[in-house]
Design goal:
The chain is an alpha/beta fold. It is built from 5 helices and 5 strands. Strand 3, helix 4 and strand 4 (93-97) form a beta-alpha-beta unit. The structure holds 1,3,4-trihydroxy-5-OXO-cyclohexanecarboxylic acid (DQA).
Length: 138
């Protein structure tokens, strides 16, 4: 089993932006923890982050992973391109958010990708990624 952890726009600023919302750990540190967790569960992991919508679509199209854990960041709320990329492949995708988007601004309450994802996990900080990974490993 191989999982791709795919982070979208502004997630490279994790640990530096809005620390009260996203925590103080960098994405690199969080990915290190996820990698160790996956290894302990006998699962291979790959990590990719991009601020570019098209690069995220290409990664979804080209991946050889068995599943994708996707935090698309703000693209979640309006990217029909990422939605269509997910719909175009057989690889299952679990949508994740570190924050509870439903407890935040109204524009975050809409996800245009949820409909084409296997499920959504949100509100558990960095553990949202771990819980999403676990959904593939149960
Ligand atoms: C986020 C929530 C989004 O609304 C926001 O634009 C992000 C991060 C989260 O992980 O909580 O960049 O996806």
């Amino acid at each position: 089993m191989k999982l791709l952890f795919l982070n979208g726009v502004n997630l490279n600023r994790t640990g530096m932006r809005e620390r009260g919302v996203y925590g103080t750990q960098t994405l690199e540190e969080i990915n290190g923890e996820i990698e160790r967790y996956c290894k302990a569960r006998g699962c291979e992991s790959e990590f990719f982050q991009s601020n570019a919508e098209g690069e995220i679509c290409t990664k979804i199209q080209m991946t050889d992973a068995d599943g994708i854990v996707l935090n698309a960041g703000a693209y979640t709320h309006y990217s029909y391109a990422i939605r269509d990329a997910i719909a175009s492949v057989d690889t299952p995708v679990v949508e994740v958010h570190m924050s509870n988007v439903h407890a935040r601004e109204a524009f975050r309450h809409t996800s245009v990708i949820s409909e084409v994802c296997r499920g959504t996990i949100l509100g558990f900080g960095k553990n949202s990624y771990i819980l999403a990974a676990e959904s593939f490993l149960l």
